[in-house]
Design goal:
Length: about 400
Amino acid sequence: MLNKRKIINDPVYGFISIGSDLLYDLVDHPYFQRLRRIRQLGLADIVYPGALHTRFHHALGAMHLMSQALRVLQEKGNLIWELEMEAAQAAILLHDLGHGPFSHVLESVVIPDVPHEAITLAMMKDLNRQMNGRLDIAIQMFEGTYPRRFFHQMISSQLDMDRMDYLNRDSFYSGVVEGAIGADRLIKMLDVSQDQLVVEEKGLLSIENFLHARRLMYWQVYLHKTLLSAQAMLTQIMHRARELAANGDQLFATPDFARFLYNRFTLADFYQQPDLLEAFNGLDDNDVWASVKGWKNHPDLVLSTLCEMLLNRNLFKISFFNEPPGEEVLAPLRAHLTAAGVPAEHMDYFLITGETTNSAYAKEQDPIRVKMKSGALLDTADASDLPTIEALTKIVRKYYVCWGKNVSLRG
């Protein structure tokens, strides 16, 4: 009989246990194995060469933290059945199934109008059908319909196992030490009160450290200006490829990728076309890179130029602004690009404006509750005597212009 109790050696936490037959079957399934081929941080290795870890690593790490957190809650007298333990671990293990190639970067281009969470749920439901209902509770926890709502908070909230793992892991692989959050201590401070996930008062400093780390990781890694430039270029490549595909051009692509390139699908299609989830599961970062390598020789100058520039790390120049940039900024850049042979109808591919926001703590949406020694539950910002927590609730908005400084479309 196959031994389904496995131990995985993880560079961040040491040994991670796969503790049940169900969890083993999920990890072993092709839907989950695909996550090995999707980088957690997309193109971030352009800036941080070590940031090559995958969604597979991250999902296993989040499952490990979930198992630790549930044991802590049990030790504090909270009644949690083994079936619930397994379901919560399954839910966090599968929470990223719906990410397409390059995760967030291409989400709005490859399958516009269908968020990855919706595809995740469709895949979980398909897995549940294949596994004869063994994921019923996990799906309820994921959706937030399970009667004990703190389970959903552990999967998706401002202090969930997803965030705890990605901050730890992204910090580790990028080498940005400021992102390390001390997950062990945070987890030991967790409790449940009034059916809510809370942090004990003595864990207040750990929450503050967690929120600071998140803010720093956004500016230093996730919203790094060089990474934003590379992401903008890859997005423009996909927009151009879609435009050419819509005009009937033949573009090199793997069969599954071609299906999404030449068609637009709705969420309903994923439920009505039985083979569409299989086709989606055939997509990963390799499909996109293979296409970019093939398209650099395409006769369309816009597509081939963008692909060659990205492959050779000849990136667009990017500048940040506190206000939306006006014509005094954009007009000289248009003139430069026109002189480089970029016609007006293709200008938007080489001159991109956008905005980015960073808010470490959105207390209005989903406050992190602190259980005071008196038993009262307070929002973290109210429980803390440090003014920095209140400052972290402010949304910082920056505008940027990205442009092809080294572009030449002259034959």
